[in-house]
Amino acid sequence: GQSLEQPSEVTAVEGAIVQINCTYQTSGFYGLSWYQQHDGGAPTFLSYNALDGLEETGRFSSFLSRSDSYGYLLLQELQMKDSASYFCAVRRNFNKFYFGSGTKLNVKP
Amino acid sequence: DTAVSQTPKYLVTQMGNDKSIKCEQNLGHDTMYWYKQDSKKFLKIMFSYNNKELIINETVPNRFSPKSPDKAHLNLHINSLELGDSAVYFCASSQGAQADTQYFGPGTRLTVL
Fold it and tell me: Which of the residues A3, A92, A102, B38 could staple to A85 if both were Cys, CB 3.0 to 4.6 A apart?
């Protein structure tokens, strides 16, 4: 089986930086993805890490440490529109993605 | 242009009924998925098809039967609906079964009364 842990809720102010952590336990690990989901909306892809290190895409960065079974999503220059749920997902056995329960990010003015 | 579309968006039905949800993607992808998101927002994979062949079948009651008539369509039929089936069902697609990125549809909110 597999398990993923991420904080249930995080609050930050506009313009700040926030880090959302994800720890996982799984066999057959291939990589870690991050998705954003606004209330009532569909999950949308943010990033994927297969190798250790930091991947940067605009204001968002994602980090993976395979040896620590740990990753995080870093959001910089927070905007109100970043208020959403963020899911980490492990890629297991090549073609299966298992999602965590999500972190609700509240951005306050 | 809608990339991944689902119908219906909302579905309210009685226990014991049979219902279907349809999904279509116009991205030219060859792999499609069904996910279930429960009230706690836990998103769980149910099925995946690659080139119309079933490649992932998680531990799902056999009341759920997916069908892929072609690479662009994946339908989900549910028999004898139960209260616990109430959830949002998302269809997704990707280019290849090993793709890093999946594109999700808008979801179908199923409520079983």
Answer: A102
Q: pLDDT, tens digit, for every residue of A41-63? A: 999 999 999 999 999 989 999 99
d(CA A82, CA A85): 9
Instruction: Return the closest-CA partner of residue B32 out of B54, B53, B55, B48.
Output: B48
Is B60 part of the contact surface with chain A (CB cutoff 8 Å)?
Answer: no
Of the listed ranges A59-63, B52-56, B77-81, B107-111, the least confidently predicted one is B52-56
Q: For A74-94, what is the mean pLDDT?
A: 94
Binary contact (A101, B45; C-beta < 8 A): no
Cβ-nearest to A96 among B45, B104, B106: B45
